[in-house]
Specification:
Helix content: 10-25%
CATH superfamily of the largest domain: P-loop containing nucleotide triphosphate hydrolases
Shape: globular
Number of strands: 21
Number of domains: 2
Structural class: alpha+beta
CATH topology of the largest domain: Rossmann fold
Number of helices: 10
Strand content: 35-45%
CATH class of the largest domain: Alpha Beta
Largest sheet: 6 strands, mixed
Distance between the termini: 37 Å
Radius of gyration: 24 Å
Strand order of the largest sheet: 7-8-9-3-10-11
Length: 351
Amino acid sequence: MADELICRVQKRLRSGFEIDVELTVPLAESGVTVLFGPSGSGKTTLLRLLAGLDEPDEGLIKFRGTAWFDSSRHVCLPPQRRRAGLLFQDYALFPHLTVGQNVAFAASRGAAAEMMKTFALVELAGRYPREISGGQQQRVAVARALAAQPVLLLLDEPLSALDVAGRLRLRAELRRMLVSSRLPAIVVTHDRSEAVALGDRMAVLIDGRIRQAGPVDDVLRHPADTSVAAAVGIENMLSAEIAGRENGLLILHVGSQQLQCLDSGETGPFFACIHAEDIALSRLAPESSSIRNRLAGRVVSVAFEGPLARVELDCGFPLVSVITAQSAIDLGLGPGDTICAVVKATAVRSG
C-alpha cells in the first residue's frame, strides 16, 4: 500500500475559475504540508475537495491506497467515510455547547477525555466558546478534530481569526500540537512566515494549479519559476542576460552591472531571484572578501521594521535589502548615500 495521498482533480466553479491539481503528499513521516498561495488561488476549494465537502468534476483522490474519489469508477466517499478532520478558519465551534461538549462531539468518551487532558482543557470544560480566548478556542478546535480520530488533518488558515500578536504567539503552539498528534496534516496559508513556522513540506498553488512542491526550505530558496518566486515573497527578481560561463559559474548582465551564480545549464533570457535578507550592505567594497557579487548603488529609502531594516536601493535597477536595524544604524544609512550591495553567488537563483 502506497503511504501517500494522491490528488489529481479538476473542478470548474460557477465563477469560471478552474482547479486543475496534481499533488502527491508523502505520509510516512506524518509531517505537515503547507498548501501555500495568494488569495483566490484555490486553496480552500482544494481542501474542501479533499474533505469530501465538494465533489471534483473528474479525477482521483487516493489516501493510502483507498480511493476517496475516482471519477473513472464512479467512487465518491462521503466525508464521514474519509475521516479527514477539517479545521475551519473561524474554528466553527458550536456556540451553544461547552468546551467539553464541543470536544466530545462525534468522538468516543475515551478519546474526548484524552484530548481534553492533552490540550489542557479540563479546567475549561464547562465554559462556552464566547467565554474563552482565541488561543483557547484554537486548542478546543484542534482537540475536537483529533478526538474524532481522523486519518488526516486539514486546516484552513488556522491563525487568520487571531490578531497579529495572537498569530505570532500561537504559531509555535500550533506546530507543537500538529507534531504531537502524529497525524499527517495539510495547512492552508498565504503567509510565508507561517509556512516556515508550521510546515515540513510546501505545495505552491497559483491560479488553481500546483506550480512547485517539496521541502519548505527548498521551495523558498529554489523557486521553480518567477511566478513561484513572486508568490513566496522573493523581493528581487531581476531581468538578466547570460554573458558567459566560467568554472561552474554563470556570468549575468543585469542592467549595466554583473552578477555571478551557480550554472544550472539554463540558456536564454531569464530572471535572477535574490532574497532581500541575502543582500549585505557595506560602505566600501570588501575587496578582500571571496564574495564575487558587489553592486554599486545609492540608498533610496530606509524603513525600520522592529529589529530589521528594509533598505531600498538604486543599482541601475531597483534592489531591496533587509538587514538588522542595528546594522543600518551603524552604517548611518540615509537616502542618497552611496553603498555597496554584496551578494554570494550561491544566493542568486535563476528563474
